[in-house]
Amino acid sequence: MASEHPSIVDFRSFLKGVSQTASNSLIVQHLLADCSSCRARLHEMGWDGSRLERLIHVSETELNERITGAYSYDAAFARADRALASFFAPVRPMEVAPEELLTELLSLPEKEQARRIASDQRFAAPQLVHHLLDRSHAVRYQDHECMLNLAHLARLVADAVQADAAGGELRLADLRTRAWGHYGNSLRVCGRLREAEEALARAASEREAGTGDPPLKARLLEQLASLQIFQRRFESAIEFADEAGKIYRELGESHLLASSLVHKAIATLYSGETEAAVEVLNHAIPLIDYELDPHLLLAACHNLVRCYIDLDRPEQALSLYSETRDLYREFADPLILLRAGWQEGQLLRDLGHLRNAETSLLNAQKGFVERGLSYEAAVVSLDVAALYVKMGSIEDLKQTAVAAVPIFRALGVDREALASLLQLQHVAGKEQQAMELIRFLNARIEPLAKRNVILK
Q1: Distance (Å, whole) CA 235 – CA 223
Q2: Whole-structure pTM value
């Protein structure tokens, strides 16, 4: 009978966490029983029940017992009720706005910031953690060090938050998962991979102690995939991205599924499977919600252009680049614009516009050097050197090799690589030998250097 099912009003109260009533027990039991009527009502409300079902974990043994009719819902219901109660538990309101607290915090010397967070309970607030994470995420392309500093403060605050302020132990674990996950991702962006691995391991440990929120798990899997890409563990990166994508697909989150696909595509591109990466990106782009996250669309298109360049299909690359140019201008993020200029130089080179390519590549090289991005600067230097070989510009090639020496030293390359760079000056007039040295140097720094991709 219809009256035996939870009403829409019951569902609304349940999803908002308004109250813990008898109707909540009925809802959980119906979800555990895979009730088609309740599924239909959730769908009518525009809410995918998969998220709740993932919160309400049922083991394979319990599932078999349920199918055979021998299953008792008592234990599963008790566990689900605890998870859901924690998930919807209210967070203690703040007396001071997080914006004001952050302004006060940033006015202090760095060492004093950590001491103040540890000693002043005003700062131990989940809302401040979220505010710091949002601020850190917002500058991820413009200023890597600022991104990392704000992420560091977020995880310090998260570690200082007490369970009663966060809505319980499980919610506190979720909060720390977010903070440590973003901190680890920021360390990865700054090239501090060992520390990033440790931070993400801490995030994974906190997640195991949390509510089991599926999107939180999927986001952590994407962060792990990004780290695996930087560590050149491409197979593992693809597995993490696929696992995140599976969660997003079950939740009906098409846009977030696209994000996981972009991670997968980049790992696939790095592994040398460029055609496969093109296929994945062409699957991802139609799923992206531009209004929700325009940076994701830019990343997907930028990386697809990268694929077409690698596949020696400059006409396709140029067509897509032309369509994407307005996106680059819209964001005007310095690092994104540098990558765009680098990519433009490669395109112009492949299309035979060598002098224009020279201008674009030299501007990109100068920008990367000024920002201390030695990985990118080294790779662009080799692109410039290869261009001068193609142009027959012997003196320019010699000067490029000399200017690249401190960049390669900053990367910590071995003596053989430095010797090859110096040798490039002496074979500048011999095209075949010069190109062999450039290819050797590219291979030597490939484990260190990030190719011209934009990682979400």
Answers
A1: 15
A2: 0.74
